[in-house]
Write a structure and sequence with these properties.
The chain has about 425 residues and is α/β, with parallel strands linked by helices. Helix content is about 30%, strand content about 25%. The chain folds into 3 domains: about 5-35 and about 220-275 and about 380-425, FAD/NAD(P)-binding domain (3-Layer(bba) Sandwich); about 45-80 and about 195-200 and about 280-375, Polyamine Oxidase, Chain A, domain 2, CATH 3.90.660.10; about 120-190, no CATH class. The radius of gyration is 22 Å and the shape is globular. The two termini are about 20 Å apart. InterPro entries: Amino_oxidase, FAD/NAD-bd_sf, SQase_HpnE, Zeta_carotene_desat/Oxidored.
Length: about 425
């Protein structure tokens, strides 16, 4: 591959595009505006807690083919861990019921016929909700496809909110159906939970940067692109803090930035470009404990638990950190951080203390709350229609990001897929 490929954005979409192109011949440069790569999937040292934490929690599945291919390319496939069975512990804070969803490994859903492996209180007829979601049209919402019952209340609704980061009343049923087709519909072997053994950066970012350095690619952090020049239907230059960069005839440009940044940078050169413009936040709260909690039973095997009937949605047990994720968090935007954290801490105690070797303290331990105010685009049917394809009206300009038309919600899997798709399009000498 001749020419110079310029990738703007060092998140997972940009890194996956770079990894895909590294070693293909020609020059490769990644421009990241921030001090470090990784975007919304990275780790950092928190001074208040005195330890390294992830800026968010991400529960991956063994069905995430693009994720595992990416990790294989950068030599990090063994950095993800998880239980050896497709198990998902849950607790309902309403009646304190506890159960472990224990999926069948094969395609046949034998788990549905075992009261000890399925959602308590569900009726088999409720499984029709899954079929309705997988067959949903582009304008249907999740709520329109769900049948009333415990399967929806205790599994499908929490699953939808975490997968879409959007409430069921407005969330796209078609997008959730795509997730179900790629996971639950493929059986338990596709649903093994996976998460980083150490941290997001240690799994997804640092090995990628090491790989790119080995491949002689250039990664420039703290380098914000402020504009793009065009001529004759092509991108011809980038405006950088230390001077403009010219794109020659064989050079290509991949924009792997967020949707708002793409709209800002490309609005003048691509007047017909439409991007998602409504967003949902995610709140993560990290509690540091001394001594570290010791989890037992299903919680000890899975190292996470789903929470129904509260603000908290998932609690992860990671060494001396109990980390909580709250999706679709726009609804809590006006809540005071300390007050919200106190409510969440009480939910954490109720959710995980019965499965710990020692009780948790009554008083809230040191905590860090991370609010990602524009964590993902709002996964509604209207916003789905605004997601652009990888190719643009400019011959050498391509788009990447979890907000592009990946067919999935804004997930790590979608971000990595988008980077691969953009890289392959940039490598393709044939246009349209």
């Amino acid at each position: 591959m001749a020419g110079h490929v310029h990738i703007v954005g060092g998140g997972l979409a940009g890194l996956s595009a770079a990894v895909e192109l590294a070693g293909s011949g020609g020059r490769l440069t990644v421009y990241e505006a921030g001090p470090a790569c990784g975007g919304r999937a990275r780790s950092y040292h928190d001074r208040h807690l005195g330890c390294r934490i992830d800026n968010g929690n991400h529960l991956l599945l063994s069905a995430n083919d693009a994720v595992f291919r990416y990790l294989g390319l950068i030599g990090a496939e063994k950095t993800l861990v998880g239980p050896d069975r497709p198990i998902f512990p849950f607790v309902d804070l309403g009646d304190r019921a506890r159960w472990t969803l224990d999926l069948s490994r094969g395609l046949l859903p034998f788990w549905l016929f075992s009261a000890h492996r399925r959602v308590p209180g569900m009726r088999l007829g409720e499984v029709r909700s899954l079929m309705r979601l997988m067959r949903a049209g582009p304008d249907q919402t999740v709520a329109e496809c769900l049948l009333p019952g415990m399967l929806s209340t205790r599994l499908l609704e929490p699953f939808a909110i975490s997968a879409l980061n959007t409430l069921c009343e407005t969330g796209s049923a078609a997008l959730l159906g795509a997730v179900i087709r790629e996971s639950l519909a493929k059986g338990g072997r596709a649903c093994l939970p996976r998460f980083p053994a150490v941290g997001l950066s240690e799994s997804f970012v640092d090995p990628a940067l090491d790989h790119l350095a080995l491949m002689k690619a250039e990664v420039r952090t703290g380098c914000r692109v402020s504009g793009i020049t065009t001529a004759d239907g092509r991108a011809t230059g980038l405006r950088l803090p230390d001077g403009d960069v010219t794109l020659d005839g064989d050079d290509r440009l991949i924009m792997a930035v967020t949707a708002p940044v793409a709209a800002d940078l490309l609005g003048d050169v691509l007047p017909d470009l439409r991007v998602p413009d409504a967003f949902e936040s995610i709140v993560n709260v990290h509690f540091r404990l001394d001594p570290a909690p010791v989890a037992l039973g299903a919680l000890g095997r899975a190292r996470f638990i789903g929470v129904v009937g509260g603000i908290s949605e998932w609690v992860f047990v990671k060494d001396d950190i109990l980390s909580v994720t709250v999706s679709a968090a726009n609804r809590y935007a006006d809540r005071d951080n300390d007050e919200l954290a106190a409510v969440i801490w009480n939910e954490v105690r109720a959710a995980v203390e019965p499965a710990l070797a020692r009780p948790l303290p009554l008083d809230m331990p040191p905590m860090r709350m991370v609010r990602e105010r524009r964590a993902t685009f709002a996964a509604t049917p209207a916003q789905e229609r605004l997601r652009p394809p990888v190719r643009t009206a400019l011959d050498n300009l391509f788009l990447a990001g979890d907000w592009t038309a990946t067919g999935l919600p804004a997930t790590i899997e979608g971000a990595i897929r988008s980077g691969v798709t953009a890289a392959r399009a940039a490598r393709d000498p044939l246009r349209r």
